[in-house]
Amino acid sequence: MLSIISERNKNIENNTNKKIFACIDDGASFIFNAGAGSGKTYSLVESLKYLISKKGEFLKYHNHNVICITFTNVAAEEIKQRLGNSSLAIVSTIHDRMWDIIQHHQPQLVEIHFNKLKNEIAIIEDEISNDGKFVNYQTLSEDKKKVFFEIMFDNKNLFYGVYNKPAVEIRVSFSEKLRDYPSLLRNIENFKKITTSLFKLDNYKKCVVAIKQKQRRYDTVTYDARYNNDALHKMRISHDTLLEYAREIVLKYDALKQIIIDKYPYVFVDEYQDTNPYVIDILSSLVEYSKEINHPFCVGYLGDSAQNIYDDGIGDEIQAQLNGFVVINKNFNRRSAKEIITIANRIRNDEIKQRSIFSDSAGGSIKFYQGTLENTDAFMQKYKEQWGINNNNKLHCFLLTNSTVAEYSGFGVFYSAFKEADIYKGGNYDALNTELLSDDIKKLGNAQLIYYKIIDIHSKLRDPQTQIAEFLPIELKQKMNLGDLRAFISNLNQATGSTFVEYLNSLINIANQDVSGHCTTFLKSVLDVDNLSLTDVKQKIAGILFPNGTESQEAAEKLEVILNLEVSICESWHRFIRRETNGDVVYHTYHGTKGLEFDNVIIIMGNAFGRERNYFKFYFSHYQCQNSLNDEEKEKMTKVKNLLYVSLTRAIKNLRILYVDETTNFNQGIKNLFGEIHSISM
């Protein structure tokens, strides 16, 4: 099955690719729409190969390059591997490419950064002046405000040392020092808020002055992909701010536009539906400016709007924004059996009507079952036996809740511990699942990133296949000879501990005793701290997860649970993030399956999804009457449809869906898509 391609289908696919080739020849920008499993990456690579073969000599002579930007490092590596060695094609993530382009224009970047700082200063000053939490500070005279800041600045280490201590201990620590400010210590949360705001304001103002005076190290903005948060006062930006700056600098400076256009006359964007709108704005401005100056510039967007499942992606709005682009649709499917393709076409229900490119595509199996949550384990066991599941023929299960995925994958305790952090209470709960379970490291939460980096050290030290290059940032590696490298690894290998905090403490102690300073430099970089101590790192984690402090016994106990997670549990989470899970059954979140494909898939589905009580139920209930929905309801239908489409199209051969709630009231919607609803008979 899925092995025979007729000459006719080969010709049709080649003709589709030739439409891209024609755009390349004509310098015409285009949108290439290709459904799930269509061989989009194949078409992308073939287009790059064509471009290099047709225009390679011209590009090389003029010192030009082709850019291909991807959504993840994994996708970039796959394209590089398929493309082979080529000095003309630069394949990387969006963030890496944007930084490579703009980092050489530091005067302009510093100007943008300077304005960003001034804007942040205005926001903080407005909050200090008007937020009701600061009323006791607002009533102070200017002289008393100045003295208060001087006292707190002189006692900054003490402040952060007791930051997460009980309120009574904080009061004791500062009651004498602030005897003239009794009102500020009445509410410790407000006291901490005003103090940290004043410290941040001071840092930003000092940075503004340093930039004005052109002090050393303040004439350069830096970006480091290892960090997920800004340090504006240190002239360092993170992922989202990078795209913000890139957009501003390109839109503002025509000279930079021309440099980019002339250096990179061809740009391909993979998975356009997930691309940040800032990137679309940047490339659109380049396309328009290239027309003004009559310089050739071609942008190709390749993707599928029906697979937009992330809130920050451009999705189907790209069509409206890119008027005049050539639109090319590919309707072949290279992944799935025709039985699965048929259902997928019903779900997406648009101009993309896929059919298999293979003549022998029949033989797949898809069935929809209605049961209960209690049926789940027995249902999976039934198909493990029926499909002959083993380590060479795995079963992939998509589960309804992220906590269930964590539990089945061996790190349920890890998930539960972080779930209890104050930062994920209330309206911010949805962020937990992205910040804890995303396989895109850039999307991990700042506290989770600390855990990931420390457990990554633990894992790599115990893997005989690990290369030293995987450990070190390039700037540190360049300072070390072979003997230094061996001593560095030997020192780190001495770290022990059965819990996260024990292992972390052991690493810190080793680093602080390392006379060469290499371990200290390395660990400071990993943890993004100025002072390498367990107290400081614990305080950093606490500040992220418990922004209102841990003076209450409940918050303190929750923090201790997080810090004392077993290393073995953390390793299970680490393997999940790296997609290195063991066993013959692999468990996934719905979102975590994007870009993957599996022979055998079971999807557990129900009325609710995440925090939405009426999710898949809403979709099936309104499937037959979509034209009567209002705009908000249509947007929700699209959101559910895209997730359902992405999940279902991961399957190559065998697919089962188990709906664990009653379906009587919307059976017809299900039947219109899947046909018969099967009953559970275990």
What is the helical fraction, as a range of percent?
40-55%
Spans with pLDDT under 50 lasting ≥5 residues?
Answer: none
| Major beta sheet, strand line-up | 3-2-6-7-1-8
Largest sheet entry: 6 strands, parallel
Please indicate the percent range of residues in DSSP E strands (runs of 2 or more): 5-15%
> Mind telling me the C-alpha Rg?
28 Å
The strand count comes to 16
Ordered list of secondary-structure elements with their pairings:
Blueprint: H1 7-26, E1 30-34, H2 40-61, E2 66-70, H3 73-83, E3 89-93, H4 94-102, H5 106-130, H6 135-138, H7 142-154, H8 156-161, H9 167-175, H10 188-212, E4 222-223, E5 236-237, H11 239-252, H12 254-263, E6 266-270, H13 277-293, E7 298-303, H14 318-321, E8 326-330, E9 332-333, H15 338-348, E10 355-356, E11 365-370, H16 376-386, E12 395-398, H17 402-408, H18 412-419, H19 429-437, H20 446-461, H21 474-477, H22 482-492, H23 500-513, H24 518-527, H25 534-545, H26 553-563, H27 567-577, E13 585-588, E14 598-605, H28 616-622, H29 631-648, E15 651-659, H30 667-674, E16 677-679
Parallel strand pairs: 1-7, 1-8, 2-3, 2-6, 4-5, 6-7, 9-10, 11-15, 11-16, 12-13, 12-14, 14-15
Helix pairs in contact: 1-2, 4-11, 5-10, 11-13, 12-13, 15-29, 17-18, 20-27, 23-24, 28-29, 28-30
